[in-house]
Amino acid sequence: MRLSHRELHYLLALCLSLETVLKLLVFYYSCKMKTYPEDLPTLSVVLIFMNEALSIILRAITSIINRTPAHLLKEIILVDDYNDLKEPLETHIKNYNAKHPELLKIIRHQKRQGLTQARISGWEASAADVVAILDAHIEVNMAWAEPILSRLKEDRTVIISPVFDNIRFDDFELLQYSVAADGFDWALWCLYEPLPAEWYTLKDETAPVRSPSIMGIIAADRKFLGEIGVLDSGMHIYGGENVELGLRAWQCGGKVEVLPCSRIAHLERAHKPYLPDLSIAVKRNALRVAEVWMDEYKYMVYFAWNLPIENPGIDFGDVSSRKDLRKKLNCKGFDWYIKNIYPNLIFLPNIVGYGTMKNTLKEDICIDQGPVPGNTPIMYPCHAYSPQHIFYHSTGEMYVGGLHGRQNAGDRCLADPGNGDLPVLEKCDIAMNKGLNLHWDFKQGSAVINRGTKRCLEVTADNPVSYRLVMQTCTGQRWNIQHTVKDWGKAKDLEQKAQH
């Protein structure tokens, strides 16, 4: 089998390295040569839209009709989360249905309910064996559906993610993304993870990729998705619902996989339509996920968002029905999930203080990680964003500049090099290997003393308006950290877990 001139031209036009092109060619051939059973399950495709251009919706519909075997495509369900797009879309739906009887259906919300509820509405209206819940700003690739339907025919308990490619919103250029697993950090922001080692040992570029989590686009056995609770309708607006589904799938008897041969191009948007600042909804939804699914590990989510554990001031809603669901399904704990599914997340049970850190001499400036790249922390007017987040451990380490808590994205430790008058920031494992002095004695409202050098972390005034962070002989300066963890000593069991 050989590539057409058009297909080869496309690959070369990406201006990729020769090595990357060769890898893409091997992958392309592997997927193109793969065969699938004839008797595959039927498919319902759900398209969610909110403030989409009509042309974008039509692009998605046309690609699905043209690139999905007609005998497998049962229906396309449009879910309108309270848009102005009415008559023009209705006309196009009638035209499509004239050619493809009863293929297109539309559900209209009478008020804006958010992405999660829109997806639930689409699932409720679906009737095929398999449901794929997509955004409306997508274009499916050739043979996108067959890998999904074939895999779900083999195992109905898999929640599937296709591989995303990206279409730039300003010039519609297609950027082909590499295959990756889906993950998240402790704030529950989504991110890509390297392919697991066991996938490489299969020596099959088309094999499903075991994934700790899932991005926004999903496909699943329709009935199985219902059995495990679809999506959490208590989620607000946007964000976190995909991580919640991934945790629930793994902990409650299912699994999550990315399918390399199923590719969907996602048209990026200049901005998200629901909120100008998505962190508001993601933060609230993250706490909801933490309370239901993460057991004693939930504190890591509070740390990552720099929220007090007691009375965080955020109402994440009633979670009793989701806890009842977890009990009904006899789901595993988050400790099992971390150890067996996502060991790349690092649990930090020894944090006793976190947030911004101020010196009592001048309380409108905070310790800050300083310029990046760079290794010198500074004092800077307090703004409380992640560059000023400090995490002090009972074991003496002090992380500065946000919380990573992941194996392949090391946190940076404050250290006293022992010479000169400046403290340094270094990745904690590197600081340990270099023998830097990275352990500190500190109590709320007291000095910060390096255990190795016995010098203190203090501030000095270069002039009346400029303060500098220095290492020097202790003069009695005192520090306060924004949040402290109460009764952390009761978590000795957690410390033991982290050591095993």
TrEMBL record:
<keyword id="KW-0325">Glycoprotein</keyword>
<keyword id="KW-0812">Transmembrane</keyword>
<feature type="transmembrane region" description="Helical">
    <location>
        <begin position="12"/>
        <end position="30"/>
    </location>
</feature>
<dbReference type="GO" id="GO:0006493">
    <property type="term" value="P:protein O-linked glycosylation"/>
</dbReference>
<protein>
    <recommendedName>
        <fullName>Polypeptide N-acetylgalactosaminyltransferase</fullName>
        <ecNumber>2.4.1.-</ecNumber>
    </recommendedName>
</protein>
<dbReference type="InterPro" id="IPR035992">
    <property type="entry name" value="Ricin_B-like_lectins"/>
</dbReference>
<dbReference type="GO" id="GO:0004653">
    <property type="term" value="F:polypeptide N-acetylgalactosaminyltransferase activity"/>
</dbReference>
<dbReference type="InterPro" id="IPR000772">
    <property type="entry name" value="Ricin_B_lectin"/>
</dbReference>
<keyword id="KW-0333">Golgi apparatus</keyword>
<keyword id="KW-0464">Manganese</keyword>
<dbReference type="InterPro" id="IPR001173">
    <property type="entry name" value="Glyco_trans_2-like"/>
</dbReference>
<keyword id="KW-0472">Membrane</keyword>
<feature type="transmembrane region" description="Helical">
    <location>
        <begin position="42"/>
        <end position="61"/>
    </location>
</feature>
<comment type="similarity">
    <text>Belongs to the glycosyltransferase 2 family. GalNAc-T subfamily.</text>
</comment>
<dbReference type="GO" id="GO:0000139">
    <property type="term" value="C:Golgi membrane"/>
</dbReference>
<keyword id="KW-1133">Transmembrane helix</keyword>
<keyword id="KW-0328">Glycosyltransferase</keyword>
<dbReference type="GO" id="GO:0030246">
    <property type="term" value="F:carbohydrate binding"/>
</dbReference>
<dbReference type="Pfam" id="PF00535">
    <property type="entry name" value="Glycos_transf_2"/>
</dbReference>
<dbReference type="Pfam" id="PF00652">
    <property type="entry name" value="Ricin_B_lectin"/>
</dbReference>
<comment type="pathway">
    <text>Protein modification; protein glycosylation.</text>
</comment>
<dbReference type="InterPro" id="IPR045885">
    <property type="entry name" value="GalNAc-T"/>
</dbReference>
<keyword id="KW-0808">Transferase</keyword>
<keyword id="KW-0735">Signal-anchor</keyword>
<keyword id="KW-0430">Lectin</keyword>
<keyword id="KW-0479">Metal-binding</keyword>
<keyword id="KW-1015">Disulfide bond</keyword>
<feature type="domain" description="Ricin B lectin">
    <location>
        <begin position="354"/>
        <end position="482"/>
    </location>
</feature>
<dbReference type="InterPro" id="IPR029044">
    <property type="entry name" value="Nucleotide-diphossugar_trans"/>
</dbReference>
<dbReference type="GO" id="GO:0046872">
    <property type="term" value="F:metal ion binding"/>
</dbReference>
